[in-house]
Amino acid sequence: MEFLLLGSAEFGGQKEEDAIWDRLVNLLNEVRQETVAQIDQNQWDEVSKRLEHLSRIDPGLVHDDDLTRARKHEWRQPVRIAVLHHPVSPLPSTEVASYTGLINAGRVKNLLMEKRFCLVLHGHLHLGWFAAERWPGQHNDWTLHIAAAPTLGSRETQHELGYNVVEVAREGNRRFSVMVSRVSHDTGGGWPEKETMGPIELDFDGSQVTMKRPG
């Protein structure tokens, strides 16, 4: 197995020298300043609400240098899993929210499919969700599986508590399978398994990984 850990550069978190990052920071700072300038002293409640909203605009961005390093790396193991904080695709219940995912999600997914990653794990939205995506015409024979993790505890949200379990099985040195299961806390205090994704079946000839499509 091999893991690719990608920082998605949240505002208020990691900062690197990056032109796209700098433009986003400057844009948000300009909006904040305009908001304060246009509101008089008698409307500070409204100012506070607007600034709080702006503070929750939290776009994800995987830096160009990280994508370049991942593209140049020689991936040798058959089971390749990427991990990052922000979603690489919109979740159904949050797709209209401002900047909940990656600004450069298309480039990230193109890299993961090109390098034959079978699974990407992410969090950020505190919701459990599974998906499988293909790119006809670009990566016809590959499927990128996506697993969003719930939260084990949050004072800010009321989402269902839970976590994902990733199981990898091997048959000899050629056949591999990956299964993802979501475990959720129920009202009785138990932790039953609720949904699964997989098995993701892989075949490895020592250099090339192929995937068996479900069904």
Give a brief rundown of this model:
The protein has 215 residues and is an alpha/beta fold. Helices cover 23% and strands 31% of the residues.
Helix content: 10-25%
Query: Major sheet: order of its strands?
Result: 1-2-3-5-4
Sheet bearing the most strands, described? 5 strands, mixed
Helix/strand/pairing class, anyone? alpha/beta
In the CATH scheme, what's the topology name of the domain at 2-12 and 57-158?
A: Transcription Regulator spoIIAA
N- and C-termini, Cα separation: 25 Å
Strand portion, in percent? 25-35%
- Order of H and E elements: EHHHEHEEEEEEE
Taking Cα atoms only, what radius of gyration do you get, to the nearest Å? 20 Å
CATH superfamily of the domain at 2-12 and 57-158: GpdQ, beta-strand dimerisation domain
Number of helices: 4
The CATH top-level class label of the domain at 2-12 and 57-158: Alpha Beta
Topology at a glance:
Elements: E1 2-6, H1 19-37, H2 44-55, H3 64-72, E2 80-84, H4 105-114, E3 119-122, E4 129-135, E5 139-148, E6 162-171, E7 175-184, E8 193-204, E9 209-212
Parallel strand pairs: 1-2, 2-3, 3-5
Antiparallel strand pairs: 4-5, 6-7, 7-8, 8-9
Helix pairs in contact: 1-2
Features:
215 residues, alpha/beta, 5-stranded mixed beta sheet, 4-stranded antiparallel beta sheet, 31% strand
Can you describe what's shown?
The protein has 215 residues and is of the alpha/beta class. It has helices at residues 19-37, 44-55, 64-72, 105-114; strands at residues 2-6, 80-84, 119-122, 129-135, 139-148, 162-171, 175-184, 193-204, 209-212. The chain has a domain at 2-12 and 57-158: GpdQ, beta-strand dimerisation domain (Transcription Regulator spoIIAA, 2-Layer Sandwich), CATH 3.30.750. The strands form two sheets. A five-stranded mixed beta sheet has the order 1-2-3-5-4. A four-stranded antiparallel beta sheet has the order 6-7-8-9, with no helix packed on it. A hairpin with a 4-residue loop joins strand 8 (193-204) and strand 9 (209-212). Helix 1 (19-37) packs antiparallel against helix 2.
